[in-house]
Amino acid sequence: MAGNRRAPRPDGKEASPLRLVVISAVLLVLVLAALRFLPGSPFESTAAARWGAATPADGRTATAAQAPSRADRPAPSPTPSPTLPPLPLKATEVDLDLAGWWSWSLLDTRTGEIAGSENMDETSTTASLIKSWIVADWLRRTDEAGDKPSQAKLADATLIIRDSDNTRTERLYTTMGRTASIKRLLSICKLTDSRVAADGGWSRTQLSPRDIARLGACIADGRAAGPEWTEWLLNEMRLVRGTGDFGIRKAFPAAEQKQIAIKNGWVDRTKEQEIHINCLAIGDGWTMGVMLRYPIGRGYEYGMQNCEKITEELIRAAA
Fold it and tell me: pLDDT band at 6, cuts 50/70/90?
């Protein structure tokens, strides 16, 4: 049949089947080789792509290796977050056999992280510890009014902070509106557990250890006394002396104690037959609050020393 006849050779002789196969194979190889150099061909080789690429102005050939795609580029290494130096205290489980009720809280003022005992939100009466706020409230409001405290009133404030003078405290507390001042404390320092005293007095203001630490942060960052007087107040609190110099900072080496601002409270509650001891400390990057309540017969020293012992536990945990 015509469809099965072989194509005639130029010399008039028919080609053998083997020769036809060889010729066809050679032609196929030549065609495929040509397609490798044809731009856009699916058989285009990497070499052809290089040869057909544009040459930059500096004379270098822009190869695929010189211009990798965005997907081929290694991801940039993330910038590591700066590591904060450790604080001299670390929250830990405090296992002390103490009489009565006690609680503590530690606040990292660099991060806002707060930790403490399970009952750090429970409240007790502050006694003289609240004087730190009353003086701060007066300093801030005086400055906000555009006035400057007189030297005589600053001297009174010094005696309130350093020596815990009750008579001058009562006078200043009345000037500041009494419970209105405590309400400003709750608002400005964003306290969550505390409240004004039922009898309106400054000594029975109810604070928790957690809110004491927050009060310390509020003083340290300037919200309490305002930017003009914050350092003055902190310096006065570093100079607390006499009976009121006990508690948290006493757990530190003597050279470090001078840099820690404090205000403590101590009172015997005859109605409840209890002694209330309270400690506030402001250090570099941290604040701390401790509160104790125990039978009146144990005396002041018992609570003062235990405030220090609780702090020692946190210092050991950080070592």
Answer: very low
DSSP 130-150: GHHHHHHHHHHHHHHTT----
Alpha-carbon torsion 131, 135, 141, 145, what sign? positive
- Alpha carbons 146 and 1: distance in angstroms, whole number: 119
What is the Cα Rg of the chain in Å? 41
Mean pLDDT for 49-63 is 42
Angle between helices 179-188 and 131-144 (to 10 degrees): 80
How far apart, in whole angstroms, are the C-alpha atoms of residue 85 and residue 269? 42
Helices (H), the chain: 17-35, 46-51, 131-144, 151-163, 166-175, 179-188, 209-220, 230-238, 254-257, 299-318
Cβ–Cβ < 8 Å for 260, 249: yes
Inter-residue contact 125 to 275 (CB < 8 Å): no
Q: What is the DSSP letter of 190?
A: T
pLDDT band, residue 82 (cuts 50/70/90): confident
CA distance 173 to 182: 10
- Cβ-proximal residues to 198 (8 Å cutoff; 6+ apart), any chain: 204
Q: Beta-carbon neighbour count of residue 124 at 10 Å?
A: 23
Nearest to 97 by CA among 272, 294, 300, 301: 294
**What's the chain's average pLDDT?**
85
In whole angstroms, what is the distance from residue 48 CA to residue 42 CA?
12
**Per-residue model confidence as pLDDT tens digits over 157-211:** 999 999 999 999 999 999 999 999 999 999 999 999 999 999 999 999 999 999 9
3-class SS at 229? coil
Query: For residues 77 and 51, is the Cβ–Cβ distance under 8 A?
Result: no
